Fold Uridine-cytidine kinase C.
Amino acid sequence: MAESDCIRVRICEGRFALLIREPIREGNFIVQPKVDFDISISTVAGLLHLGYHAVACIEASALIYQDGKILVEVDHLEAMPIPYIQIKGTNKDIVAASASTLSLDGSFTTKTYLEIILESLPALERSYSGIQNQQALQLRKLVEFIQSQGGSSGFESPSTRENSSADSSIEELQLRVKILERWQAVNMVLWTILMSTVIGYSLYKRKRH
């Protein structure tokens, strides 16, 4: 199973968000259109009802520093002994200069936290099933909590009327997932075209000079 087959859900202060990430890597940089959707716990329960499985849970805390040009995020991952620093901005040169100021030259990575954690596992466990085995109890508790809270919204009910309501909710959820998948594909194509145009224009300017 590839990471692109996964749906990322963030839980922060009791709120859930669906994260759409399609990073385009360019050297030490990630050009990443960011789209987050706030969702209810019932929606997460609906995804589990549709057949999705919880395969990994990454617990992290972050300290964020920002000004008008860049955002510096210090992430502490529970599974990793050292923090990671993300520098975000709209200007590549400013981001690179900030990294140099923080003496981060030569220590960049464009890997996701999930990839980093997978690589830290023993060779025989370097798969999503390896993470799932290590986090079995934690994931089971998380799934049970989501199902118990989401179930109160009508996904599971003995009455015919509530079952009908749950069916319509599931159909609506399936439609939303399909719309998100189509939007994600279109968004990826648009960003690829944009980056190709920018690179082509840069090469054209260099040739003229």
